[in-house]
Design brief:
The protein contains no helices and 11 strands. The protein has strands at residues 2-6, 9-11, 17-24, 32-38, 45-50, 57-59, 67-72, 77-82, 91-99, 102-105, 109-113.
């Protein structure tokens, strides 16, 4: 079981980034997926979640209307499109997969929003 994130980086306020998480080692369509983030000195928090089929999504209030989570089960990949980024979005972003009480995490990718 492996989750590998990519797409992080440095962006100016108001800019956009797209994170990707490639999964391997299990049947991707059987997992609910999500993105979490953790800023320095803060607890890890849920940013967005998506159901196994992709038909249902949920977002933290702080990102609703700016971020979009999606998945491509044929490519075993989940995405997080982040628009109108703010300095407070700066954090390490982690990909999450869960099934039957088991949790799987990626290694994290740094997103820094700064001018």
């Amino acid at each position: 079981v492996q989750l590998v994130e990519s797409g992080g980086g440095l962006v100016q306020p108001g800019g956009s980034l797209r994170l990707s998480c490639a999964a391997s080692g299990f049947t991707f369509s059987s997992l609910a997926m999500g993105w979490f983030r953790q800023a320095p000195g803060m607890e890890r928090e849920l940013v967005a979640a998506i159901s196994r089929s992709g038909g249902a999504t949920d977002y933290a209030i702080s990102v609703k209307g700016r971020f979009t989570i999606s998945r491509d089960n044929a490519k075993n990949t989940v995405y997080l499109q982040m628009n109108s980024l703010k300095p407070e979005d700066t954090a390490v972003y982690y990909c999450y997969g869960g099934i039957n009480g088991y949790d799987y995490w990626g290694q994290g990718t740094q997103v820094t929003v700064s001018s």
